[in-house]
Structure formats: C-alpha cells, structure tokens
Amino acid sequence: MSSNTVRTRFAPSPTGFMHVGNxxxxxxxxxxxxxxxxKFILRIEDTDRNRYVEGAVDVIYRTLATAGLLHDEGPDVGxxxxxxxxxxxxxxxxxxxxxxxxxxxxxxxFCDKTEHDSNGEDVxxxxxxxxxxxxxxxxxxxxxxxxxxxxxxxxxINKEGISTYSDAVxxxxxxxxxxxxDQILLKRDGMPTYNFANVIDDHTMNITHxxxxxxxxxxxxxxxxxxxxxxxxPPEYVHLPMIMxxxxxxxxxxxxxxxxxxSFESLAAEGYLPAAIVNYIxxxxxxxxxxxxxxxxxxxxxxxxxxxxNKSAAVFDYDKLKWMNSEYIKAMAPAEFAKCSKEFxxxxxxxxxxxxxxxxxxxxxxxxxxxxxxxxxxxxLEQPEYDTSLFNNKKSKCNPEIALTILQELLPMYEAxxxxxxxxxxxxxxxxxxTKEMKLGLPMWALRIAVSGCAVTPGGPGEIMTVLGKPEAIxxxxxxxxxxx
Length: 485
What we know:
Layout: E1 7-10, H1 20-34, E2 39-42, H2 56-67, H3 90-103, E3 106-109, H4 138-146, E4 152-155, E5 162-167, E6 171-176, E7 184-186, H5 194-204, E8 209-213, H6 220-230, E9 236-240, E10 243-246, E11 252-254, H7 264-269, H8 274-282, H9 297-303, E12 314-316, H10 318-330, H11 334-345, H12 351-354, H13 356-363, H14 373-381, H15 400-416, H16 422-436, H17 441-452, H18 461-468, H19 470-484
Helix pairs in contact: 8-10, 11-13, 15-17, 15-19, 16-18, 17-19, 18-19
C-alpha cells in the first residue's frame, strides 16, 4: 500500500443504538477517504465492558450497510491490520504501556480502584490532586508488580508549559499542560482504556485522519504526548462541531431524545428514507460551494472536501429533514415507492391491498414520511365518525341540505352501476352534474364526505369507491343519508 494512501476509521463502542452524531462521524470519515481514493476502516472499540450492549455490534453493521457506508476493512470483512475488535487485540497493548513506563512517560498506579473509575477518569473529590504513585521509586514500583500487587498504568504528563496542535476544522489549538490529568492507559484487568487503545490502534493500522467530535479537542494533547513518547507521527485531526436540537422554547441544547428520534434506525422506522437521512446528515457541519441541498451519494463522494467543514454547531431541523425526505419520495420510481410504502401501510389481507399500486400513485406526491401513510388511508379500512357539518364547503357551495338531495339522487344510479371502476364511477357523477347544470365539484364533495368521512383524501370518489368495493360504498352512502335526514 502507498504510504500516502488516506486511511480513516470509524471506531464506535457497542453501547446501543447508532446516534446521528455517530453516523455523521462515520459518514465524514468515509467521505474523506473515498473522495481521495483512500480506505475506510471499521473498528469496534469494546474496551468498556460495563457499557457493552448485546446486539449493538449488529446494529452498527446494519446501520452502516443501510446508509451505504461500506468499509474496506473490519471485523466482518477482515484486512491486513486485524483483528478489528479491541478486546481481541488485548495482548498487544501491555507491551506498549510497559515501554512507556520504561521511558518514564508512564508509571504503575496501585491506588484502590474506587479512587478512579474503569475508564481512567478521576472520580475523587479533588481530581486535580496528583496521584500518590506518580513519584514512587521505579524499583519499588517494579517490586510491587513482581509481588503480584494489582496495578494500572497511568500516563505521566509534564504539567509545565503548553501543548499546541493543528486541527483541520478548528485551526491551531493550545492547551495548558497543567489541566491535563495523568490518565489511565492500562486498567487492572489488562484492558486498555479507550484513549490509549485509540492511539495504539490508529498507529498500527496506519490511520492518517482521525475524525471525531469536538468534545475531544481538550484531550487531544494527551494523545499527542503519547505519540511523541513513542516517536510516532500523529494523524491529521478532524474534529466535528456538536449537533444541537431545538427546544420547545426556541433555545438550543445538545441533541437528545427529547428533541425527537436521534438514532438512524428510529428515523428509518418512522419512514425517513436512508438516502434522505444520509443526505441531510452530510449537511450538518459541511457545506458545498453552492446552494444545492439534494445530492446523490456518488455526488457527496466526489464533491466532499475537508475545507467545507464548519466550526459552528449544527442544529438538527426535523422540518428540514421532512422536506428533504419528501423530495426523495417524489423522485422515487413508482414501483419502488409502492413496494416500500406497502410495508408501512399495514394492509395485508384487506381489499386495500388489491388496489395498492393505484393508491400508492396517489399517495406518492402527498407523502413526506412513510409513517404518515396508515393515517392517510385509515378511512378505507374503517370509516371514521364524522359530523354532518363536514358537508359544508364554500368553494363547491355544498351544505348538508344540498348533499342530502344529491346523495338521494345518486344512490339508485350507483346501485344500478355494474362496471365498478374509477372511470365509470367518475363518469356517472360527471354526467349527473351536467344534467343538473351544476359544477362537478359540488356532487364530488358530497360523495367524498359520504364515502370517506374525511375532508382530505388521496384520490377522489372514483378511486375511493373502487377500493371500498360496491357493497361498502353503497353502505356508506346510506349511512350518510341517515345522518343527513
């Protein structure tokens, strides 16, 4: 492999669902690699066994596949730098940690584990307090290790001076070393902490660009000090701005479940198309050099540039996502829409299923998210309760009294109609309107309300009565006549 091949990685922890922030990180890592002819690697970071969720790895595989982010290397496809699951790499971390102890860049820590949590974060009352093991005589520390005393290995950070590094999005970042803690690198059980495993894995897998959230900006100097201690070249850092959600009062806060669905799978379950979700997420922190908003996946790959990433936080706008989804739905091939919308419609075994292709054609331009469909067609499965005031319509000049007369006159005509199709049903009411010298909208409105009980329906009386079938349509007209009388 060429030494200048771009290699990015997505390294999620299997702790549950795939948050849109995780998916954006994966998407940008993928686009950075593929836009430059590079490789996209999947690595599962399962060092924190306390937060491991059964089945979460399958969620990661499923989400990436559905989103179109196909990895070149990973646990399921292999590669020359495997294994790609951190727990399976456990034995490789200790030699690196011991190497740091030998060079003075780390030390053995014998503190009771209640003083520090399993991730290496200090949970004592005074987190700035220096660990008492930091200045232990190395010979004494080694003797305690040899005697079998439990230990962790902590990074030994020089608290003097400053650390400066460059980020592709935020520019030059400077941190005072005194605020950096001596993080745990290797836990008592021999497992590495997230931060330490990241550095070892990224270096040994030849990762060139590390893409992650901006919350890691302050801790990056600790990573760089590890790279320096090993004499390694750090990767290029690409820190992404936070994704925010809008609260009911208009203020914004970090995106969470209270703002709505925040996982890829839950958005897809609501009826957002995967391609629309990916397109929308691509714009949460990145912008092309034009005003376009709809991009095919191939266009995202060809147009993506790191220079287009923004520093400012992105606000997840569900209305904007809904609009974008509706544009994707309108652009679908009719047969494709009929197939995917049928899965949401819940019509198996009903008369509606027989006419689904016709109904899908009516629903496609009127649907923003697929989960709206059951509500749009519910009246076909069971007529809702409605009030006769629904027959009032200023535009068509209809009211309950006029509707009563129209339906009384139309009923025997429909009872006698043998060819029950949308065309013949519409032709009958059209001829009736001409005979009565009234605008077609008037009898059409009276019929629509009688057979649907709804002011807004996909399709008109012709389509509705066809789907209902003659017996049900006649039954509903009779019920309307009883109400109006």
